[in-house]
Amino acid sequence: MTVRRHWSEHGLVFVAPFLLFYGLFLVWPLLSGIGMSLSSDNIAGTGGEFVGFDNYAEALQDPNVWSSLWNTVWFTVLSTVPLVVTGLVLALLSHHLRIVQWLWRLSWFAPFLLPSGVVGLLFLWVIFPSDFGFADQALAAVGLNPGIGWLTDERYAMLSIVLTTVWWTVGFNFLLYLAALQAIPQHLYEAAELDGAGAWHRLRHITLPLLSRTTGVVVVLQVLASLKIFDQVYIMTGGGPDDSTRPILQYVYQAGFTGYRIGYASAVSYIFFALILIVSLVQLRLSRRTREENAR
Fold first, then answer.
1. Neighbour tally for 153: CB within 10 Å
2. Is it true that the peptide bond before 241 is cis, omega within 30 degrees of 0?
3. Strands, DSSP E only, in 32-153?
4. Of 1, 6, 22, 125, which one has the fewest beta carbons inside 10 Å?
5. Mean pLDDT of 79-87
């Protein structure tokens, strides 16, 4: 009993710095934000009267909230599948490539190391400018009509942001899949090859099933990351044209720092936080059910 009490006392001493920073930079801002969402706080520091759930009721009836939320969900749908599939394909190619393998891996992971501002300005000034941008020059080279408003046309603006995001962040998924591929025992492929299994059968019955857990992790991380999109949209389109690419986080920024309504912006952000929490719990439940079914 004395030893356990002695260990507990010293254990608290060791974890106390972490608990202090955890409470100071996570728990306290979380509680403070909830308090602001229930008030009429503004950025000037005036007001601050308690309004209860009026901000939440207004947010649920605000068409700008729903349109921004739809843009966020639509971007998530458009970006998640190509990011997961492209990461897997690149990892498979890199895993079996025997020539300049290190250069292949570096070339796909290097963009992930770039800051969002660099990536946004690169595509804004070099890739997507009308008529003289690299994208239009590539279209002209294959005989197609250039002059597409990549970032100014509602039909192409979101797609342009998705293409930018795929090029920028696919390296992270690529690295996760590559690590998982290297962990698969080689004797499984050798045994299957002795049994006459071809490359397609080995991929379908060995590689993909053994990568299922990694795929689950990649999908969860990618969905959560896509839901939190802000940087590249703010830099490349500013939410335009006609708010067709404005995500929910940009609307929170505009409501709080342009519209000066900190209380209302806090309410919108907590509604979005609840959505992310629900998505995370659903994905966790689905992945757990899938593992249970595979274990039977």
1. 14
2. yes
3. 39-41, 47-50
4. 1
5. 94
Asked whether 94 and 107 are in contact (CB, 8 A), the reply is no
Distance CA 101, CA 181 (A): 15
Return the SS3 of 265: helix
For residue 259 the two structure tokens come to 């519209």
Whether the pLDDT of residue 16 is over 60: the answer is yes
Residue 295 pLDDT class (50, 70, 90 cuts): low
Instruction: Look up tokens 């299922």; give the residue.
Output: 212
- CA distance linking residue 273 with residue 279, whole number of Å: 10
Tokens of 141: 């080279």
Tell me the mean pLDDT in the region 207-211: 88
Rounded to 10°, the helix 262-295/63-96 angle is 40
The end-to-end CA distance of the chain, in Å, is 43
Q: What is the largest CA-CA distance in the chain?
A: 82
φ, ψ at 217 (rounded to 5°): -65, -45
Q: What is the mean pLDDT of the chain?
A: 86
Q: Provide the pLDDT for residue 167.
A: 94
Helix (H) or strand (E) holding 139: helix 134-141
For residue 3, pLDDT over 60 is answered with no
Contacts for 109 with CB less than 8 Å, ≥ 6 apart: 171, 172, 174, 175
Amino acid identity of residue 190, one-letter, is E
Residues 166, 172, 173, 175: is their CA dihedral positive or negative?
Answer: positive
User: Residue 294 pLDDT > 80, yes or no?
Assistant: no
Residue that has been written with the tokens 């998505």 in this structure = 279
Residues β-bridged to residue 47:
41
What's the whole-model pTM score? 0.86
Q: Which residue has the higher pLDDT, 241 or 98?
A: 241
